[in-house]
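Ticket 4471: requesting a sanity check on a complex prediction with magnesium ion. Repro inputs:
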Amino acid sequence: MNSNRAKDERENSKVLYHHFLDIMYESHEIYFFDSSTLKFVEVNAVACRNLGYSLDELLTLTPADVMVKLTDEELHRLIQPLIAGKQGVVSLETSHLRKDSTIYPVEVRLHRIEKDHQTLVLAIVNDIIERKQAEKMIHYLAYQDHITGLPNRMLFNDRLSVSLSNAKRNQSLVTVLFLDLDRFKHFNDPLGHDKGDAILRQVANKLKQCLRENDTISRFGGDEFAIILSHVSRVEDVGKVAGRILDKVSESIAFEEFEFHLTASLGISLFPHDGMTREELLKNAHSAMYRAKERGGNGYQFYASEMNARMYERLKLENGLHKALDRNEFILYYQPQYDSKTLQVTGVEALVRWNHPELGLVPPAEFIPLSEEIGHVVPLGIWVLYNACKQNKIWQEAGYPPMSISVNLSTKQFKQSNLVQLVADVLRDTELDPRYLKLELTETDMMENTDEILLTLNQLKAMGIQIMIDDFGKGYSSLSYLKKFPVDILKIDQSFIREIETNSSEREIVVTILHLAKILDMKVIAEGIEIKEQFQFLRKHKCDEMQGYFFSKPLPLSEIEQILKQNKQVGASKGIVG
Ligand code: C2E
Ligand code: MG
Ligand code: MG
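Returned structure tokens:
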């Protein structure tokens, strides 16, 4: 019973084996070749068809003739382990070369066969185009989002890891943005998911347009996208990119007969500030995105709240700054300068303020650097110069004793190539005599391109203008440039004045500057005098002029005019007559 059953099973498996060979012979390229001459001995119809040769043609060739980059010698070497009985099968991946010279990738498995005392090699060939395509598809499915074609979450994670290790090495910034469309459900549910998918594709295209090729944009699923910015080096620029993305997303989307207005919420986290690992950065960008949603959507939030405040303030200032000149929002304040002996006003310094519609009076320290950065300081500087000169002329015409007006020049302004011409134009237009204009420069302005600077200063000087070095002592004071440049006045920085009563070395510095100026035939003005002791010390050491809250703060036009009217009474009111 048992042995019968075993015999049946053997018979069955023999039938199955032959059946299997038949199928193989029908469906695969199969050929036999001689192990010593390598000549084809038998080739099936599939192989003839695939290779584009007739059987007769093939019987004159060897397999090496139809394989790319394989010689007979190499084929000999390849089958050696089979012939020696060391290996049952040898397989290789190569390409088959058709008669018409086109190729197709194949996998060939070689077996040793004994037939009529002849050693043959059997080759079973698998076309691997399909396998390669399948592999590609598997890769695509694993790493790409099938709706938008963007990298999916897995590829995003890989790329973020790479960006982070690069950034650790280069000590650079990596920015992760997490974007979620606002109220996408409202569009997606009634339209159906196919149309929802088409909208997501349009959003993906918009994102691509806002970003650089090196940035990674990925769809995380649903209406969530995540972005890695790897080229941005400043927090301010991250805000700009975020703003650009939101603007782009909110442009209307035309779809069939509809037009949509989508908006998005963006959360931002920065390496290294907001996290060192991939998980932390994503988690924090995600929670920042929720905060943006809570604030009503269509906005972005940094994970760290002080970044939000900083960006918000800056953007508000930056936006306003572009329009402030046209809207006439700048005003000049004037701070009087006094002769230390006579206590008469010898001049005023023009100090600009920005009368911001929401923030009130913004001091120059907050907007001049920003203004320099966005390239706005040149027109602002011209405005200041023109209005200061004009005002001085108006005072003279109104009968006030002539005095000088000091105008601060920013570094960028000083480096403008047409500065000399510009100053000449302003003086001509306002009809102010050049000897009543003082230009305040800083030491750092003078340190670069000294030849050019020397030329500019000489030209200004030749016009009759006075040159003053502001904040003297704070920068890289160098005797050599002081000697070389046509400087009329040194303005001692207020930090030295502040320390006069408490710090003996600051006192010595002030006395030295006063000496030095005398040797170089320059005048000295001290700024930031707040108390009587400072005034007395400076007067004792023969500082020529003084300026500071002790006398007066910078004042708006109407108030400075009060001071100019009662010019001579200042000494009496401070108890320092004479
Ligand atoms: P600065 O030219 O050194 O101006 C002196 C600053 O010290 C002024 O500040 C003034 O208000 C302040 N100050 C005067 N007396 C005292 C005092 O007794 N105690 C103290 N603690 N401070 C005193 P402000 O007006 O805020 O100007 C700051 C800086 O902004 C100026 O420094 C100047 O560098 C710049 N700036 C002002 N106006 C202009 C302008 O029209 N163009 C350019 N490029 N820069 C300007
Ligand atoms: Mg100044
Ligand atoms: Mg100063």
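Notes from triage: Residues 15-132 form a domain with the Beta-Lactamase fold (CATH 3.30.450.20). Leaving this open until the requester confirms.
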